[in-house]
Structures are given as C-alpha cells and as structure tokens.
Task: structure prediction
Amino acid sequence: MSKQEIDSDGFQIVSSKRSAKNKQTKVPYTASHFIKEENEINVEKSYQRVLSAVKDLEGSQYYNDVFKAVSTVLNERNISEIVCFGLGHVGECNISRYQLAFLLCLKDSFKPLKVLVHDPIFYVGECELLKRLGLSIIEENNEGSYVICDESITLVYLPHCPKQLTNNFLWTNWDIRLENCILLCNSFASLLVNHPSRMLIEMVPYIYKLSEYLDEIILENSFQYRDIFNDTSVHYIKEGKLSKVDSNFWNKSDKPKYNNTEEFITTQMVEKLNI
Result:
C-alpha cells in the first residue's frame, strides 16, 4: 500500500495504490440464474431482533470508531441524507440484520432529513419492516444510479455491495459534487491491490479514476461478529481536491454495462422474472 498518514484523531488514512496481485478470477454464473423469491416473514419478530441488534451496536467500540471517523470527515457539517443499497434479506439473514441496525445507528447519530434504502430482493414484509423503522424505500431498481445533492452532504452506505453498483453510483454523480459524498463501503485500497488494473479500468473505470483523489479511513474490524463489517472503510474527498483536475477528467460514456456477473442484480434480470 502507499504511504500511510495518521490524522489528528489517530485514524489511519490511506491513499489508493495502483498496483495489483494477479489472482485467479472466479467464473461467474450468467444473469439468468437470478431468481427472485417472495417469502413471508414475521414482521414483529424481525422488528424486535433489529432493535436488539441496535443495542449491541450502539455501545460497541466498532460503532464508536465509525462515528468518530465520520464526524472527523464532516468537520461540523451536517449530513442531509443517507442512502443505502444492498442490505439483503433483513428479515432472515443475521448479517443483513446487523447491517440494518448499523444504518439505524447512523440515522440516530447524524439525524439526516431522510434515509433511503433499496435492494431488489426485499420481500414485501421486509419493506413493511423498513418503513416501520422510519426508512424510505427506493422502489425502482436504479442499479445504484441515485443522484445526490449538489451542496449538502450525502452518506452512502454500501454494505459489501458489488463493485459494479458502486461504479454506477459514481458514474451517475460524475462531477464536482462528489466532494459532498462520504462513501462507507468495501475498501477501495483493497480492491486496487487485489485486482489487476486492466480489469478495473475495463469493468469499474469510475472507481479506478476517482481512487487517486480519495482519502480512506480504514475501520478496524472490532465488532463481536467478525463477518459483518470486515473490509469496510470510510472514503471521502477533501474539499477543493477535485477543482484542479483537467476538464477531460469528467468526460463519461453511456451508463456502464456488465456482462456475465452473478453478484450484480440488474433491472433486466428482474424484468425477466415478470415475463
């Protein structure tokens, strides 16, 4: 990794390094293998389990570290909205339940005007649960193409989401407004180290291009369940850092398309289920 910094609050800050280790690539299934199910869940039982998970998290060292890191980046600014993609089956999966609890902790700590969530696999009962918890649901599968505010701060939470989803989000907001965005997601630094540059340039070019200008706060995976928040970092761009880039930097092509990937659920995949 590149030269490391320690900020005034003791956080480790890394800048992305564009070197890679050659690793064998897993051959993915085709999109046709995606099957959307609709299972019933016990909303009241799920609700109580989420509240219990919130209690576990809000007093944890892990959440304290996250709160401190995000607060440091904000520097007394306010978060106007939190957008979350890819929570998964919050009514069935323990990992998803804790990631939802984490989102609720962020909501309580930073008090944004709105908190929006989306996952194309949500059950009807899970949508009812999320609304009961005070969250707004993005109904359409926009594949991460959510437009953030021009001036106020948006916190985007992508819990172990596929890199294609993050790439789509960056493509949608590909201009100076990205300085007003805090990304809480899988480590970009790890992505750059563990994948060949040629693959990243071809598949997720907007992640690759922006990584040079991002600062990243690595979050120690100290939560009691180690498989929930592993490889998660806070990513942000220091104010004014993008103002000096060449105007050609903001050129972008049509919306990215991804072939032969099992991890990214596209609109076309969902539409096939309704034929």
